[in-house]
Amino acid sequence: MTQPSPQEIAEATDLRQQLRHHDYRYYVLDDPEIPDAAYDRLFQRLQQLEQRYPQLITPDSPTQRVGGEPLAAFRTIEHRLPMLSLGNLFSHEELIEFDQRCRRGLGLSQDDSEIRYCAEPKLDGLAISLLYLGGELVQGATRGDGKSGEDVTHNVRTISAVPLRLRGKRLPRRLEVRGEIFIDRTGFKQLNHQRQEQGEKLFANPRNAAAGSLRQLDPAITATRPLRFYGYAVGEVSDDHPLPPSQLEMLRQLQQWGVPISPEITQVAGAEGCHNAFLHLQQQRQQLRYEIDGVVYKVDNLDQQRSLGFVSRAPRWAIAHKFPAQEEMTRVIAIDIQVGRTGTLTPVARLEAVAVGGVIVTNATLHNQDELSRKDIRVGDMVIVRRAGDVIPEVVAMIPEMRPAESTPFLLPQHCPVCGSAAVRSEDKAAVRCSGGLYCPAQRKEQLKHFASRRALDIEGMGDKLLEQLTSKELVRTPADLFTLNRDQLLTLERMGEKSVTNLLAALERCRHTTLPRFIYALGIREVGEATALALANHFGDLDLLMAASAETLAEVEDVGPVVAASLSTFFRQPHNREVIAALTDPLRGGVVWPTIAPQRDLQPAAALSPFRGKKVVLTGTLSRLSRSEAKERLQAAGAKVTSAVSAKTDLLIAGEEAGSKLEKAVALGVEVIDEERLFKLLEEIG
Ligand code: 5U1
């Protein structure tokens, strides 16, 4: 065996230390120092050295996360201290009772001060015990029944966030770290995306994905899964290194040893403090990078924890305050088809009413035929329904064991259920569409809703209920008909008194004065959102020119690809659509007008040379000379693309007073930053 030189031995040791340091920065401090590519280079160099000189390999080397053959079965491991589970509570009253129980248990009187608690997010993953001997990871075990679990050492070693060796010199001889293995939101999305591409079954939620990934007999599979780890407790610990006296300080100690802990942990006082932490985390929940299902309150003082002890398998000093469930079980009563503005047929499950996360759910989207077939949802099935934040509830999965005997797969109809036109599926899309266009009353109604909506013509008071009445009574068929409505007609409608009619007529009058981008957007052309409408208006400056443009000419517009160009040219070729536009713009009928725009093709030389042309610009902070929307409009007129988030693709940040995180991010990314004064000057120069 060739022997490494002293320099190579030193280099391998140094590389291992560097990699451990960067793991710590990334997983524990959440503050990486170097880009991923630089980390990969260090890793590859160490791998190279270890391949050339296998005698340099140490068991705790960062390269040794995957190793060994797949197992035939998991070994059972007895937990020397039982792994407790947590009791739950669901209301403020129960929280007060918990606090009272702790106070009684500690012999505290009314006059004694509040108990200090540690409030921790309750991660939706699976509990794990990690055993470190002399600072080296020697064992990982699942919770199992609390007394014994499965030996998943080979698998936990593959999780980069789990330190193979603890940091620091003064380490306990024996330390059992307990915590949660989980998959964060991004990891979950990527994992399911990958599985979809490979035709594999999708995971219903991050918890199942984490559990399924950890319980693999082949660690090489676990290694490909984006598992993370946060520590939240200490199990057995040798007495050679006394731990700090509080839960929070103990967690900080773990963190110093290189164990990641959740950044959202706080120390609070009494039941009220716990309640506030609960409300805060509940509100933050959707923004957290991982899913949580509640908050864990723990008496912070470890002596007090010991004195309270536990009953059966749950500690008296800790409890989980669960958020109202976001997933519930219910039955599918029917599957209906909804027809959208552009004719897309969406299957919607009508459900037996069920409270999900505090809201009664009776409908949930099934997305499209592919999703529906993949999940094989049928009428009569018991299903799991999920609500997340403001997102439309969705059917996650059916429960096979509860399927009624005589059910049949659901197939989308071949004809539109509203107008009977053929339903067609374009080759490259999952969506099936009604081919009836504006002949279809459902599409017409949705189209009208879009036309009147805030970002389109913004007709105040023209809500869904009113449009339902107007279309069902056939008072309105096209957007142009809205402008011919008179007082008498409107007074015949439900909930339309004199005052509302006057207001609505005034709103119709106001919105006749619009802008060309709004008008184009309001037409509801498939694939044409606000940004495209703006690009088209700026490019052509004139509706007639836009309508006359060929698909090739349209594709010359920035941000307009062949699909959008084809959709535009199909739309403008339809005689029906041309008639509606003519009626809308006819001074004697619709009377819709907008200020003229100088087309960008004919820009003044100064404007053509605008420093903002084609630049991705973000506005942040408070501007004093211009309103945010004025600044946005002037920037757009000068050819900029104004976006809301700063990323590596941003060209310029305009920072007003009290600019905060966006400014910091821009500086970190090296994005050019200018202040309002400079912006104003540049806009003035363009004229
Ligand atoms: N954050 C957190 N989750 N969790 C789960 N802390 C926590 N503590 C637990 C469990 C089962 O048990 C303690 C009794 C250690």
Question: What does the secondary structure layout of this molecule look like, with pairings?
Answer:
Blueprint: H1 6-28, H2 36-52, E1 76-78, E2 88-89, H3 92-105, E3 116-123, E4 126-133, E5 136-142, E6 148-150, H4 153-156, E7 174-183, H5 185-197, H6 206-214, H7 219-223, E8 227-237, H8 247-256, E9 266-269, H9 270-284, E10 292-299, H10 302-308, E11 310-311, E12 314-315, E13 318-322, E14 327-339, E15 345-356, E16 359-365, H11 369-375, E17 382-386, E18 394-398, E19 423-425, E20 432-434, H12 441-452, H13 464-472, H14 479-482, H15 487-491, H16 498-511, H17 516-522, H18 530-540, H19 543-548, H20 551-555, H21 562-573, H22 575-585, H23 605-608, E21 616-620, H24 628-637, E22 641-643, E23 652-655, H25 661-669, E24 672-675, H26 676-686
Parallel strand pairs: 2-13, 21-22, 21-23, 23-24
Antiparallel strand pairs: 1-6, 3-9, 3-10, 4-5, 4-7, 7-8, 10-13, 11-12, 14-15, 14-17, 15-16, 17-18, 19-20
Helix pairs in contact: 1-2, 3-9, 12-13, 17-18
**Compounds present?**
ligand 5U1
Q: How many angstroms separate the termini?
A: 76 Å
Mean pLDDT: 90
Low-confidence stretches: 602-606
What is the multimeric organization of the chains shown? single chain
Percent of residues in β-strands: 15-25%
